[in-house]
Request: fold
Amino acid sequence: MIRINIIGSGNMAWFLADSFAKTDVSISGICSRNKEQGQLLADACNANFVNDVAGLDDNADISFIALRDDAIALVVNQLKTTSIVAHCSGMLSMDALSAHKDRAVFYPLQTITKNDLPNASHIPICLEASNTETLRIVESLADKISHHVHFINSEQRQYYHLAAVMVNNFTNHLYVLADDLLTKQNLSFDLLKPLISETARKACISKPLNNQTGPAKRDDRNTIKKHLNLLNQNKELKELYEKITQSIFKLHQQDEI
Amino acid sequence: MIRINIIGSGNMAWFLADSFAKTDVSISGICSRNKEQGQLLADACNANFVNDVAGLDDNADISFIALRDDAIALVVNQLKTTSIVAHCSGMLSMDALSAHKDRAVFYPLQTITKNDLPNASHIPICLEASNTETLRIVESLADKISHHVHFINSEQRQYYHLAAVMVNNFTNHLYVLADDLLTKQNLSFDLLKPLISETARKACISKPLNNQTGPAKRDDRNTIKKHLNLLNQNKELKELYEKITQSIFKLHQQDEI
Reply:
């Protein structure tokens, strides 16, 4: 039986604990500076809670560092284990763990919030390891929770993380701005929900370039002008509208030349 | 039995024909300048095809103008019917039909492509009419195809259209740019699909503001700097990244003050 430690008690730590608790993997210890959240997570997955990495079981097969990038560096040097150390960051190079001979990256490409944990089985897990035996072990772990395991090096992973920010953070920000725009007019964001779902569905079944519609693509300046007029009291959104509209226009203008 | 005419043979015309063909509404005529597409659509819904609005059945209860905004104005003046005339535009005021006493707007808030027609039942239909009796008739038509019928005036509809452009056109453009970014690195857009689906799913069940994550929200300048470095060869996307990042940052900075 593989035994793991999880360092952290945030969204990623909850996701790992929740996912592995459904398998034959044993969660040995949870370590967190946040005693309340750490204890809660440890209770939820029948693990020991410790407040300091020095208290973690040295015999665990792998320690997952599920912390923010800047916190990972601090913890790495405190970890005295000789077994595998893995981080779950999209942007941090595997080299950040170079104090450990057997090191790995275990990066689930998904937006994760602990109050609404996603099912891991459809989530791409991006793996990288410092040697073949370490890779074999992290792969066997990833296979236990997901059907979509990929070998991705640190540079490739950075591009996936950047693309993920674009399709999640940026897209969600557009939802936020649309919600705000409608709310100020006493209109309901609910009416946009079927459109939001359909937009995502289409991107998953056909190339996004072929799904593009709208005034910017067809250079419908009359509609764009009307939209900008509606945004006269909203300088911030107006500038963003202009910037994205220009970007769509340029891309599709290039297509036609 | 209600009888309708449809003017146009583009995405919206196909959507209306497909949706009403499943009800007890009779599609009397299809009118299009595009003979090939118009005939194809007429054949698909057992309607007569005409190439000129003068050839349409004057006794139909309602004529839907499913054309681009700039083409609607041209057709309005050629239509000699005394029954209801409705357009399907998001931005055009109902006044554009003022040559007709019984006029209406019938605007399905959805992205529609004729090769992959959406099921109308979950699509919000935004209605407006020049008088009570006209509204009653267009409402009874909308009820036949959708469970989500809303009374929305021309000004409100413009805000919905603008918000729709943001959550569909702009969002899809981000998918296009992410696809392009990954393709240039020989990486696969497929890995983003679970994230795209989850981002949309979350927006439909909880307030987008509460779903926001990522480097811009938490002011993680180190990650933002790394992302911008990856975009050094892509001036257009780099500027767009900076603009959206600033917008997210400002919004969430305001929250914390």
Observations:
- Residues 154-184 of chain B form the longest helix (31 residues).
- Chain B touches chain A through 88 residues (CB under 8 Å).
- Chain B has two domains: 3-152, 157-256.
- The beta strands of chain B are 3-7, 26-31, 48-50, 62-65, 84-87, 103-108, 125-129, 149-151.
